[in-house]
Amino acid sequence: MIQPNKVKAEAKKKEDENFKFRSYLKGHADEDELDRQFLSLHKELFADYDCSKCRNCCKMYKGSIPAEDIDRDAQYLGITSEEFIATYLEKEEYNMNYQTKHMPCDFSQEDGNCKLGDCKPDSCKKYPYTDQPERLSSLLSVLDTIEICPVAFEIFERLKKKYRFRVRR
Ligand code: SF4
Ligand code: SF4
Q: Sheet of 98-100: strands edge to edge?
């Protein structure tokens, strides 16, 4: 598995190849079969991967906090909702949700755990979405995660092998 601190640079090197593989999948892959392949690789590769040693997803994004999570999260941290917003959050530009003020995410802790514990947003729990359905129509998002997440990067590399994909030069 690629090291977390190398994944962005390696994904950039493979940007053209990855985009071509995305187009190949669009033209050749069966939607349900591709979801099964993603899910199987996700389970296999995350089974013994320690995310606390990586945390690229907390370092390279701001945390996105849905408005409906605010009261619950504030309660979890033992502060008021107003204090929670004032201390940690700012409004996202195009919707009613919030994001953390800083990147790495303000809830990211030294030990790799999230300060929000089980209250972390659903989007964080689901990241990198490689076990979610409709991967074929989400391949552009997959390309984004490949630049951040070593496991998503490896899943895409394994899929290339599975489909015997080669870039024609
Ligand atoms: S989900 Fe991916 S990016 Fe996030 S900590 Fe785990 S391996 Fe790293
Ligand atoms: S909310 Fe927690 S899990 Fe989500 S990005 Fe921030 S530190 Fe990571």
A: 64-65, 98-100, 89-91
Question: Ligand 1 atom 2: the closest Cα is on which residue?
Answer: 149
What phi and psi, each to the nearest 5 degrees, are found at residue 79? -130, 170
Render pLDDT for 82-111 as a digit per residue (tens, 0 to 9).
Answer: 999 999 999 988 777 899 999 999 999 999
How far is 89 from 94, CA to CA, in rounded Å?
15
Instruction: Name 82's Cβ contacts closer than 8 Å, sequence gap at least 6.
Output: none
- Is the C-beta atom of 99 inside 6 A of ligand 2? no
- CA dihedral of 149, 151, 154, 160, whole degrees rounded to 10: -90
Note if the pTM is more than 0.85: yes
